[in-house]
C-alpha cells in the first residue's frame, strides 16, 4: 500500500504520541526489558549479552519515536546503528543464530500495546483512532522488518568472518569441556594450550558499558592475571576466552589466594569493568566448577544491578542463593531489617561484626577497635530500629546485612 501524507490533525496526534513514547516511565521500561529478555533464555541467562540486547531494544524505541516526531506518518528507515550491529556480533560470538532475533518481535509487540494506550489517550474520535493506529502499525512493521533484515545480513557476515577465527574455535572447545561433551582432555589441552591437572581459579571479566574498543577491558584482564598468578618470577599461562565483545572468561592455573583489595585496585580506573571470581579447584572438574561459581557470581552482580566491581564467590555464595529471586530478596531484607535498613553503613557493620563474633560484645569491640561501651550503645541504637529483638533474629539479620551492600541503587524498586 502506497504511503500518503496524513492530515495536519493526524500529524499533530502522531507527534504528541511520539513525544509521550520518548518519555516512558521507568516501570514501563523495566517491564519492556523483562518481556523481551524472558522470550529467549540463552540471552536472559547471560548478563553481558542481556545488557547489549536491552540497550539495542531501547535504542530502537528512541530511534522509531524520534522519526515519527520529525516526519509523522512517513516510513521509518531501518536502524542499523553501531549499537545494533554490535548486538549482531555478540549474538554470533555466543553461538546463537537468527532465532535469537525473536526478542525484537516481542519488543515490537510490547511497544505496540503501549502505542494503542497512547492513541486512546490522545483522541476518542473513531476515524482519528483508525488512521492513527493504521499509520503507526504499517510504519512499525516496515521498520522492524527492515531492521531485522539488516541484522540478519550482519550476522551472516559475522558468521563468515569468524569461521576461521581462533577465538571462536577456543570458545567451541571450552564449551565442549564445560558441557562434558565427548572430547578427550588431552586433545582439549593441546588445542587450548592449557593444562587441566593443576588447581584453577576462574574469573569472568566484563564491561557494563557499550564500547566497541575492548582495549581497556583487555588491560584489566592482563592486570588481573598478573595479580593472581602465584609465581611473580614465572610467565603465567592463563586461558582467556572471548565470550563476547565485552566479556572475557579467564582461567589461571596455580593461582595465589585471591586478594580482594589488590583486585579492586586494578579496576579503580575502569569504573565500567566488573570481575566475578570462582573458587580454586583442581582437575578438569575443578575447571568446570570454578567457572560455574564465577558465572553464578556474575549473574548475581547483574541481577542486583550492583555497583560493586569485584565479587568473589566464597564471599557472596549465600547472597547469590538468597537473591535468586530479587523481589523476594528485597522483601526479606525489608521485613528483617525494618527501619534499620536505612541506618548508616557504620552501624550496619557494627551489628554484622557483633553477630559474626558470636554475639560476643568484647570480641566484637576488639575487631572494631572501639570501646565495649561504645559498641553496646550502638547495638542499643540498632535494636530500636529493628522490628524484632536481635537475639530472636540474629541469623536473619546477618544474612540481610550481608546481602544489603550488593544491591544497586535501584534494586529495591523491582515490581511484579
What does this molecule look like?
By secondary structure, the protein is an alpha+beta fold. It folds into 3 domains: 8-162; 196-320, Reverse transcriptase/Diguanylate cyclase domain (Alpha-Beta Plaits, 2-Layer Sandwich), CATH 3.30.70; 325-406, Arc Repressor Mutant, subunit A (Orthogonal Bundle). The chain is 61% helix and 8% strand. It is built from 18 helices and 6 strands. Strands 1, 2, 3, 4, 5 and 6 form a 6-stranded mixed sheet that branches. Helix 5 packs across helix 7, helix 10 (215-228) packs antiparallel against helix 11 (260-267) and helix 15 packs across helix 18. It is flat.
Keywords:
416 residues, alpha+beta, Alpha-Beta Plaits, six-stranded mixed sheet, flat, disordered C terminus
Q: What is the radius of gyration computed over CA atoms, rounded to a whole number of angstroms?
A: 26 Å
User: Secondary-structure element order, as H and E?
Assistant: HHHHHHHHHEHEEHEEHEHHHHHH
Number of helices: 18
Helix share bin: 55-70%
Number of strand elements: 6
Runs in which pLDDT lies below 50 for 5 or more consecutive residues are: 410-416
How far apart are the termini?
41 Å
- Provide mean pLDDT, rounded: 87
Number of domains: 3
Largest sheet: 6 strands, mixed
- The global form is flat
Alpha-beta content class: alpha+beta
β content, as a range? Answer: 5-15%
Domain PucR C-terminal helix-turn-helix: 347-403
Protein name: Transcriptional regulator
InterPro entries: CdaR-like_regulators, CdaR_GGDEF, PucR_C-HTH_dom, PucR_C-HTH_sf
Family: Belongs to the CdaR family.
Amino acid at each position: 500500500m502506497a504511503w500518503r501524507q496524513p492530515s495536519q490533525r493526524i500529524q499533530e496526534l502522531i507527534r504528541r504520541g511520539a513525544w509521550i513514547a520518548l518519555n516512558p516511565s521507568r516501570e514501563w521500561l523495566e517491564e519492556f526489558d523483562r518481556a523481551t529478555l524472558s522470550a529467549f533464555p540463552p540471552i536472559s541467562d547471560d548478563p553481558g549479552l542481556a545488557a547489549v540486547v536491552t540497550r539495542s531494544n531501547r535504542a530502537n524505541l528512541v530511534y522509531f519515536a524520534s522519526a515519527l516526531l520529525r516526519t509523522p506518518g512517513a516510513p521509518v528507515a531501518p536502524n542499523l546503528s553501531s549499537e545494533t550491529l554490535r548486538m549482531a556480533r555478540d549474538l554470533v560470538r555466543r553461538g546463537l543464530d537468527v532465532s535469537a532475533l525473536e526478542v525484537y518481535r516481542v519488543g515490537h509487540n510490547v511497544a505496540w500495546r503501549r502505542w494503542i494506550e497512547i492513541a486512546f489517550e490522545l483522541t476518542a474520535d473513531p476515524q482519528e483512532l483508525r488512521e492513527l493506529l493504521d499509520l503507526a502499525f504499517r510504519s512499525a512493521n516496515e521498520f522492524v522488518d527492515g531492521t531485522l533484515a539488516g541484522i540478519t545480513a550482519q550476522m551472516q557476515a559475522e558468521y563468515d568472518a569468524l569461521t576461521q577465527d581462533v577465538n571462536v574455535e577456543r570458545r567451541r572447545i571450552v564449551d565442549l569441556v564445560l558441557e562434558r561433551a565427548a572430547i578427550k582432555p588431552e586433545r582439549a589441552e593441546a588445542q587450548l594450550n592449557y593444562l587441566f591437572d593443576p588447581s584453577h581459579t576462574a574469573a569472568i571479566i566484563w564491561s557494563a558499558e557499550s564500547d566497541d574498543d575492548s582495549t581497556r577491558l583487555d588491560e584489566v584482564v592482563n592486570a588481573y592475571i598478573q595479580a593472581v598468578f602465584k609465581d611473580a618470577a614465572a610467565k603465567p599461562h592463563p586461558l582467556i576466552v572471548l565470550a563476547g565483545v565485552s566479556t572475557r572468561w579467564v582461567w589461571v592455573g596455580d593461582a595465589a589466594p585471591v586478594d580482594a583489595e589488590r583486585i579492586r585496585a586494578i579496576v579503580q580506573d575502569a569504573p565500567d569493568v566488573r570481575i566475578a571470581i570462582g573458587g580454586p579447584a583442581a582437575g578438569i572438574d575443578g575447571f568446570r566448577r570454578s567457572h560455574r561459581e564465577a558465572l553464578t557470581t556474575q549473574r548475581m552482580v547483574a541481577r542486583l544491578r550492583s555497583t560493586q566491581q569485584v565479587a568473589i564467590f566464597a564471599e557472596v555464595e549465600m547472597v547469590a542463593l538468597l537473591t535468586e529471586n530479587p523481589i523476594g530478596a528485597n522483601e526479606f531484607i525489608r521485613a528483617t531489617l525494618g527501619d534499620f535498613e536505612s541506618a548508616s553503613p557504620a552501624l550496619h557493620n557494627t551489628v554484622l561484626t557483633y553477630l559474626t563474633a558470636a554475639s560476643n560484645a568484647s570480641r566484637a569491640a576488639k575487631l572494631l577497635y572501639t570501646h565495649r561501651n561504645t559498641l553496646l550503645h550502638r547495638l542499643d541504637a540498632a535494636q530500636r530500629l529493628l522490628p524484632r529483638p536481635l537475639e530472636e533474629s540474629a541469623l536473619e539479620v546477618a544474612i540481610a546485612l550481608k546481602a544489603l551492600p550488593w544491591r544497586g541503587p535501584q534494586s529495591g524498586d523491582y515490581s511484579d
